[in-house]
Design goal:
Layout: E1 2-6, H1 12-21, E2 27-31, H2 43-59, E3 64-67, H3 70-83, E4 88-90, H4 92-102, E5 107-112, H5 114-119, H6 121-129, E6 134-139, H7 143-148, H8 155-170, E7 175-179, H9 187-194, E8 199-202, H10 203-217, H11 219-224, E9 231-235, H12 240-250, E10 257-258
Helix pairs in contact: 1-10, 2-3, 4-6, 4-10, 8-9
The protein binds D-glutamic acid.
Length: about 260
């Protein structure tokens, strides 16, 4: 089983990408909807939640863990890699690798939650590979609630996206990393507002490619995962709004089990 967790509903973009890229694997997803958002919380709090989420997924039989949440990936990866022996993947490294491949002028833009942006993790990983890169990051705290309201195609959302992206446009970035689980759902508006010449890096697609490569290179792990196409979805709180966004993301009605962990 591949275990995937997020602060809530946004990580379903990663589930969707993995289902598209490597269909058939058994997946267990945990959305920590009782504690969402993570993006406004302290690093210590997010680390604590991440450990609880991983423990839950391991109890369900996960043999590989994917941290779908950019915020948890930014602040909790170092700690959880130290603590667990199972393969654990975060979404930052694959997105950075794709961004480095995609960029011609090494002018990068990054958008994410406040916690992700203030962690500086994307800058650090880009600079490690490309010391000459110029990186401009913008925290976009209003985008997660807009997506959760289902305001994907509203004029107001387009105006807010435009306002957030303006400083990146001025800097003439050529590659923009969507550093948050929710932003793939706003891809069309983001592309329109940043301009069609800017390449968007969708971390959900990048991580699905990383998992595909890892499983091809590690048949011993691959064999342990189970390939009956089972998708088990757990959340720590269920709301009608959550169900609506989940349906929008996975394009089907799905059943969730609510668990207190
Ligand atoms: N999942 C979070 C992320 O990717 C966004 C929502 C939140 O703040 O919890 O950063």
């Amino acid at each position: 089983m591949i275990g995937i967790f997020d602060s809530g509903v946004g990580g379903l973009t990663v589930v969707r990408a993995i289902l598209e890229k490597i269909p058939g694997y058994d997946i267990v997803y945990f959305g920590d909807t009782a504690h969402t958002p993570y993006g406004t919380k302290s690093g210590q709090t997010v680390i604590g939640y991440s450990i609880n989420n991983i423990e839950f997924l391991l109890r369900q039989g996960a043999k590989v863990i994917v941290i779908a949440c950019n915020t948890a990936s930014s602040v909790a990866t170092a700690q959880v890699l130290e603590q667990y022996a199972v393969p654990i993947f975060e979404v930052i490294t694959p997105a950075v690798a794709h961004a480095l491949d995609a960029s011609a002028n090494l002018n990068f833009g990054i958008i994410g939650t406040r916690a992700t942006v203030s962690s500086g993790i994307y800058e650090k990983k880009i600079i490690e590979n490309q010391p000459k890169a110029r990186i401009y990051s913008v925290a976009c705290p209003l985008l997660v609630p807009l997506v959760e309201e289902g305001w994907l195609n509203k004029r107001e959302t387009a105006m807010i996206v435009k306002k957030y992206l303006q400083p990146l446009k001025t800097r003439r970035i050529d590659t923009l990393i969507l550093g948050c689980t929710h932003y793939p759902l706003l891809k069309t508006i983001i592309q329109r507002k940043i301009g069609k010449r800017v390449q968007l890096i969708d971390s959900s697609i990048c991580i699905s490619e990383t998992i595909e490569t890892f499983l091809a290179d590690n048949p011993d792990v691959d064999r342990q995962l189970g390939q009956s196409g089972n998708l088990s979805l757990f959340v720590s709180d269920v709301t009608d709004q959550f169900k609506k966004i989940a349906k929008m993301t996975l394009k089907t009605n799905i059943k969730f089990e609510c668990v207190r962990i």
